[in-house]
Specification:
mainly alpha; about 0% strand
Protein backbone atom coordinates (compact mmCIF):
# COMPACT_ATOMS: atom_id res chain seq x y z
CA UNK A 1 0.00 0.00 0.00
CA UNK A 2 2.82 2.38 0.88
CA UNK A 3 4.47 1.98 -2.52
CA UNK A 4 1.14 2.37 -4.33
CA UNK A 5 0.30 5.61 -2.50
CA UNK A 6 3.80 7.06 -2.85
CA UNK A 7 3.84 6.32 -6.58
CA UNK A 8 0.33 7.68 -7.12
CA UNK A 9 1.09 10.96 -5.38
CA UNK A 10 4.50 11.54 -6.94
CA UNK A 11 3.30 10.57 -10.43
CA UNK A 12 0.74 13.35 -10.11
CA UNK A 13 3.59 15.81 -9.55
CA UNK A 14 3.16 16.29 -5.81
CA UNK A 15 5.92 15.78 -3.27
CA UNK A 16 5.31 13.53 -0.28
CA UNK A 17 6.39 16.33 2.06
CA UNK A 18 3.87 18.79 0.58
CA UNK A 19 1.25 19.97 3.03
CA UNK A 20 -2.39 18.93 2.92
CA UNK A 21 -4.72 21.86 3.52
CA UNK A 22 -6.91 20.73 6.41
CA UNK A 23 -8.64 23.56 8.24
CA UNK A 24 -7.09 24.26 11.63
CA UNK A 25 -4.04 22.07 11.00
CA UNK A 26 -0.74 22.94 9.43
CA UNK A 27 2.26 20.82 8.68
CA UNK A 28 0.16 17.77 7.80
CA UNK A 29 1.94 16.08 4.88
CA UNK A 30 1.10 13.33 2.43
CA UNK A 31 3.83 11.23 4.05
CA UNK A 32 2.01 11.49 7.39
CA UNK A 33 -1.23 10.43 5.72
CA UNK A 34 0.48 7.47 4.08
CA UNK A 35 1.95 6.42 7.43
CA UNK A 36 -1.51 6.55 8.99
CA UNK A 37 -3.18 4.63 6.16
CA UNK A 38 -0.53 1.92 6.35
CA UNK A 39 -1.50 1.33 9.98
CA UNK A 40 -5.19 0.70 9.22
CA UNK A 41 -4.89 -2.41 7.07
CA UNK A 42 -8.60 -3.22 7.18
CA UNK A 43 -9.28 -0.19 4.95
CA UNK A 44 -6.54 -0.76 2.36
CA UNK A 45 -8.74 -2.51 -0.20
CA UNK A 46 -11.46 0.15 0.00
CA UNK A 47 -9.03 3.06 -0.19
CA UNK A 48 -7.12 1.56 -3.11
CA UNK A 49 -10.31 0.67 -4.99
CA UNK A 50 -11.69 4.18 -4.54
CA UNK A 51 -8.43 5.81 -5.69
CA UNK A 52 -8.27 3.54 -8.76
CA UNK A 53 -11.85 4.44 -9.71
CA UNK A 54 -11.22 8.16 -9.25
CA UNK A 55 -7.98 8.03 -11.23
CA UNK A 56 -9.55 5.94 -14.02
CA UNK A 57 -12.26 8.56 -14.45
CA UNK A 58 -9.64 11.35 -14.47
CA UNK A 59 -10.99 12.65 -11.17
CA UNK A 60 -9.04 14.51 -8.52
CA UNK A 61 -7.42 11.91 -6.25
CA UNK A 62 -6.20 14.73 -4.02
CA UNK A 63 -9.79 15.62 -3.13
CA UNK A 64 -10.23 12.07 -1.78
CA UNK A 65 -6.82 12.15 -0.07
CA UNK A 66 -7.83 15.38 1.66
CA UNK A 67 -11.04 13.66 2.79
CA UNK A 68 -8.93 10.84 4.24
CA UNK A 69 -6.65 13.38 5.94
CA UNK A 70 -9.66 15.03 7.56
CA UNK A 71 -10.75 11.60 8.79
CA UNK A 72 -7.26 10.97 10.12
CA UNK A 73 -7.33 14.22 12.09
CA UNK A 74 -10.75 13.36 13.50
CA UNK A 75 -9.71 9.80 14.40
CA UNK A 76 -6.63 11.06 16.21
CA UNK A 77 -8.66 13.62 18.15
CA UNK A 78 -6.75 16.69 17.00
Amino acid sequence: MRTYLENLITEKGVELEDCIDVEGHFGLTYQMLIDFICEVREYHATIRSTLVKIDFCNGDVFHYLKHLAEGMVAACGY
